[in-house]
Amino acid sequence: VRDCHDDLPACLLESWTPEQLAYMHDIPWWRSMIGQTPGVQIVDMHPMTSTEEAWADWVACDSPYAAGDRAAVKAGALEHLNTIAITLRKQ
Predict the structure, then answer these.
(1) 2 found inside a domain
(2) Closest by alpha carbon to 68, among 6, 8, 14?
(3) Which of 71, 82, 54 is nearest to 11 (CA)?
């Protein structure tokens, strides 16, 4: 939802290390990163409304990876996580 790498919430660290969280960023970070890419135009970037439903489905499945993520979700990680939709156009 917003970049918090300088002060990672404890709920995220229930399931992931800081290194594993390094790829999770907010919309301004992704806009800046993608905006530097030659030949690409950002058409749209917004948070999706399906985050909670997607995580509920994920942690309910019997994947060992999902089992590892359950502690963070139970501890409140969804307050800090979203899913971002990005539409790009090649120029």
Answers:
(1) no
(2) 14
(3) 71
- Residues for the chain: how many in total? 91
Is 7 within the bounds of a domain?
no
Please give the Cα distance from 60 to 17 (Å, whole number): 22
Place of tokens 């994920």: 58
d(Cα 75, Cα 63) in Å, to the nearest integer?
A: 19
- pLDDT tens-digit series, residues 18-73: 999 999 999 999 999 999 999 999 999 999 999 999 999 999 999 999 999 999 99
Q: Is 4 part of any domain?
A: no
Token output for 25: 């960023």
Q: What is the pTM of this model?
A: 0.85
